[in-house]
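Hey, can you fold this one?
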Amino acid sequence: MYGTPHTVSDVMTTTVAAVGRRAPFKELVEMMQDWQVSAVPVIEGEGRVVGVVSEADLLPEEELRDDPADDYKRLRPPADLAKGEAITAGDLMSSPAVTVRADATLAEAARTMARARVKRLPVVDGTGMLEGVVSRADLLKVFLRGDREIEEEVRREIVTPLFPPPDSAVELRVEDGVVTVLGRIRDTSLVPVAARLVRAVEGVVDVRFDLAAGRRAARV
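Sure. Predicted structure:
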């Protein structure tokens, strides 16, 4: 395996705002405002996550405030109508909660967020106990990685093993996360392999090749 992928534990927030099932509606709104978050985990017992209340779960209360006409209500999902009358976290929450483990890779967490269409995930241990929260912004932190650090990893873990001298002479450049590989290589069939591996390096935005095999140029 090339490099050491970051895990959720590397970027998650461990100081977390959470509520119990009986937390009232107003407390939920105040907590989201105070903590500047879009969702809070709902816990019970010693901290086991049983659900999540998000801004989307609270909005039906505002939508139905003016007692809209019956035809409007018929267009709303039954769950939204129920939440429009709910006043506690236990009734408002989405359950079971979509969670992620601390040892999951950032790519795994990103896929979970995308599938569930959520902005934040509670991080739990093997028994479902709350350990932290990871957000979309947290997952993007890898793109703050410096170009020099990216270049060193790509050179050490990918370019040198795949294109060793003296058969190949490769120059590597990294600018704003975009990796460019230039020079001469012996076997252009390895270019797709190198491209896949470079794109998997954390912090890489894109990869470009301008290589030559003998007198013939190869671009990917």
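The longest helix spans residues 147-162. Let me know if you want another pass with a different chain boundary.
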